[in-house]
Specification:
single chain, about 240 residues, alpha/beta, Rossmann fold, nine-stranded mixed beta sheet, 7 helices, 11 strands, globular
Amino acid sequence: MNKTLDSMFGGDIKVVQDATGYRFSIDSIILAYHVRPKPADVILDLGTGCGIIPLILGYREWDARIIGVEIQSDLAEMAAGNARLNNMEDRITIHHRDLRDLKPILSPESVDLVCTNPPYRKAGSGRVNPDIQRAIARHELKANLHDILQTSLFVLKKKGQIVVIYPADRLTDLLCGMREHGLEPKLLRPVHSYADSEAKLIIVMGKKAGRPGMKIDHPLTVYNKDGSYTGEMEAMLE
């Protein structure tokens, strides 16, 4: 499969991606921006794809240890290659594994922060992309929301955080699922394409064994009326 070499942050980060297969989207950049680890935290990215979130976090958080898990072997290999390409292999570890079975590589309560941009379409709903990389990334074919939350509960330390970006129309599924798995929702932020459009995405931060009580942050708007990025989005890309 043909590959492209893309860059971010003025060329400081280089990313190899498939030209026609799964490619990271603005969702991943928004999610990484909302991951706020403490010094020396262990961060787990579930469904890491080409490794874009570990790369952004590794660029921003020099003392964090970042683990990416990816079920698709070609993407896992690409993610590991991207870590080496950016000289981050000492801080980023990529595992080719099913996220439903991390016991061989991670101990219970060994992670400070989980982040994930999970498959958001239920299996059997809508047209499945004929490209297998994109289909697995977008549809719950290999893992569903329950699997992701169950794994997060297993690996997170008490009071550890999970940060998820998810479609706004599945907000109820996410909030109810988080509470059922002992991951109390603490912060919600809606994401709008334009200031006058409805929210299409939401960012939710939860805390393992956290107390009830959730704050709603001001909306994130991605585009100005002329189609250019808003100031906050520009800051994410700088």
